[in-house]
Design a protein that fits this description.
By secondary structure, the chain is an alpha/beta fold. It contains twelve helices and eight strands. Helix content is about 45%, strand content about 15%. The longest helix has 19 residues. Bound molecules: 1,3-dihydroxyacetonephosphate.
Length: about 250
Amino acid sequence: MRRPVIVGNWKMFKLLSESVELVLDLKPKVVNSHHCDIVVAPPFTVLKTVNDRLEGSNIKTAGQNLCEQTGQGAFTGEISGAMLKDLGCCYVIIGHSERRQYYQETNDIVSKKTRAALNAGLKPIVCVGERLEERENNEMEKVVGQQVYDGLSGLTEQELSLILIAYEPVWAIGTGRTATPEIAASMHKFIRSVLSKNWGKELSENIRILYGGSVKPDNISSLMAEPDIDGALVGGASLEANSFAQIVNYK
Ligand code: 13P
């Protein structure tokens, strides 16, 4: 059985005081939510404080990005996996479509970052998803299949077992236009078939695949009812304790 996981991606939102307010508000609202893993991905600047405030709770944290270089070095402005681990992070989001779109992250960079995350002992949440024109041209499986294959290339079975994949169709992010549960489930099934073909059936059945793109309290249950959807990567609705807690408590 794959354990559900709900991740809140705060993106470039929340100053320090706002972050503290949000997690202190969130904690009691999900304290009895034992049915899933709960993760928040705050900006780097507040990670230490947020981790301190979450100590001993059932909420884990993720970085939103990391440098593909391991160890320490002269890479001005970059944050390594070891630095995230040092602050108490367990996960890191990699290859989010905003990174691909605005910061030219390619599948090759995603693969290097995934390797760097694993080297640092972090669980990578590897994001994939097609753009609107790719869906309209019926190229979505080709694009997403390539993102999965390239992003995970060269990993051992043991490493792959630590990976989570997030399917986030770009046309659904921040638009209020959620993929229907059927559209999302069909892509999740396809991703699982790519995993199975390349790395074996057993592994494909163990990897958790999250859906992201305008997930809200009123659509989470229908998404989670799909057997191939193992969780959600939530943007806007994770910025407010009530809505994120409602999503966590979708059952
Ligand atoms: P929204 O939930 O705001 O559409 O964002 C989705 C997302 O990009 C999460 O990583």
